[in-house]
Design brief:
7-stranded mixed β-sheet, 4-stranded antiparallel β-sheet, about 0% helix, globular
Amino acid sequence: QVQLAESGGGLVQAGGSLRLSCVASGRTFSNYAMGWFRQAPGKEREFVAVITGSVSVTYYTDSVKGRFTISRDNAKTTVYLQMNSLKPEDTAVYYCAAKAGWSYSDSYFRSGYNYWGQGTQVTVSS
């Protein structure tokens, strides 16, 4: 089992920044790829970014490229999402997720992840 706990959400004005953190406990953290997803009201949960386990290769959805940065600290068993130039359409509950091993083909889908956190609310005002 892997337990995930997100923090760092809040209310920010458009153009501002937030950094989300997700602390993992349980199995060997570096064995897991870590992803961030988000879910806006009335919408499906969507992929935001993923970082692989040991070599930290990163992938992003197009709408956040150049604004968001995913990173991880394996010693602290923590994954981060630095969000800059925030827009009102970034408003959502943000979830971190852990994926055992690595497979690019399903890393963009909820079904590709084994464990999920409870989420943290990000609200961007215009």
